[in-house]
Design goal:
Blueprint (H helix, E strand, L loop, with lengths): L2 H34 L2 H25 L1 H6 L8 H10 L8 H16 L12 H12 L17 H8 L6 H5 L4 H21 L6 H17 L11 H6 L3 H7 L11 H21 L6 H9 L2 H19 L1
Helix pairs in contact: 1-4, 1-9, 2-4, 2-5, 4-5, 4-6, 5-6, 6-14, 9-12, 10-12, 10-13, 13-14
Length: 316
């Protein structure tokens, strides 16, 4: 198999997997659009267009136009569109195209190609793109319609955290904002379950993330008093915890290779998510929890290689 044929085979294989993941996300995306309007699709369309443009530019600079064209500018692997879909559900409707362009540059240009392209990146590109614009344009990303939240859940989580002396029941009385998130979370979970059934992803990472968040929330819920940090159900169905557990934490490039290390990686994400969400200055903990956990992946993979080498030496 020559190099061109090999690259083409890898691209097609990766593309079929990434397209399946994108398809599994669509019901949850549609649920969010039904709740918050077509502005969600506005974000998705712009991010897909801008991310693909950055992909074309980066591959052209790396390989030259002729070689990049033969590689179809690496658009066939499906990772660029998937990153755009993930970023789009993190954002309030109708974000400025200029801000979305910064997200695309950070995600595809910085987090992906600056590390050497597909399979070489340490950090999840979609989370890098989102984190950059969240820190750069916080006010622009805080305007959710009807004081509700998206995947990041900044508004509802902020309101709950700074609810004063209200109990959890008093806070949620008459609030319908969380119903849309519950529906979207359920559809994201169904999409993830379908991917597990198709053996495209394994259950250990999403389940461990959700269990970790649930255990911490359950311990600190204290029955829903004014000092409660929120019930497990609240933390599962707000802030896009379910979507992140199934579609972000499971990124095969940025999570460890060894199953035992994947469990530790998922526990770390769950702990960081809950800590940042309840104690940090920013109520959104998902992007930063994932990116901090990504830092441990090279260490886990190095330990895995050392264990394999030690096993080979013993057998020899």
């Amino acid at each position: 198999m020559n190099e061109r044929t090999k690259n083409h085979w890898i691209t097609n294989r990766t593309g079929s997997v990434m397209n399946a993941v994108t398809l599994a996300m669509l019901p949850g995306v549609i649920a969010m659009a039904a709740a918050y309007g077509v502005g969600i699709f506005w974000n998705l369309a712009w991010l897909a267009l801008l991310s693909c443009a950055v992909e074309v530019g980066c591959t052209t600079m790396r390989y030259g136009f002729a070689a990049a064209r033969q590689r179809q500018f690496d658009l066939g692997d499906g990772t660029t569109v998937l990153a755009a879909v993930i970023m789009s559900i993190c954002l309030p409707p109708f974000v400025s195209p200029a801000i979305l362009a910064v997200a695309a540059l950070a995600a595809i240009g910085l987090a992906k190609h600056a590390y050497g392209g597909l399979g070489q990146n340490i950090f999840n590109p979609a989370m890098v793109g989102y984190a950059v614009i969240l820190l750069s344009f916080p006010l622009a990303l805080a305007s959710w319609p009807g004081a509700t939240d998206g995947l990041t859940g900044a508004t509802l989580l902020s309101e709950f955290r700074y609810r004063g002396n209200l109990t959890a029941n008093e806070f949620f009385t008459g609030r319908l904002a969380n119903n849309a998130q519950t529906l979207a979370a359920g559809l994201f979970a169904l999409g993830g379950a379908w991917l597990i059934y198709q053996r495209i992803m394994h259950w250990r990472i999403p389940l461990t993330v959700l269990v970790t968040v649930g255990v911490l929330a359950g311990i600190l819920h204290d029955g829903g008093s004014s000092a409660s940090l929120g019930s497990p159900w609240f933390h599962w169905t707000t802030g896009g915890t379910v979507a992140a557990a199934f579609f972000v934490a499971t990124d095969p490039v940025t999570h460890p290779a060894r199953p035992q290390h994947q469990v530790l990686f998922a526990i770390l994400i769950g702990c960081l998510l809950f800590l940042l969400r309840t104690q940090g200055n920013l109520p959104d903990g998902i992007a930063f929890a994932v990116l901090l956990a990504n830092c441990t992946t090279p260490l886990f993979n190095r330990l895995h290689r050392q264990q394999l080498a030690l096993g080979d030496s013993k057998r020899a």
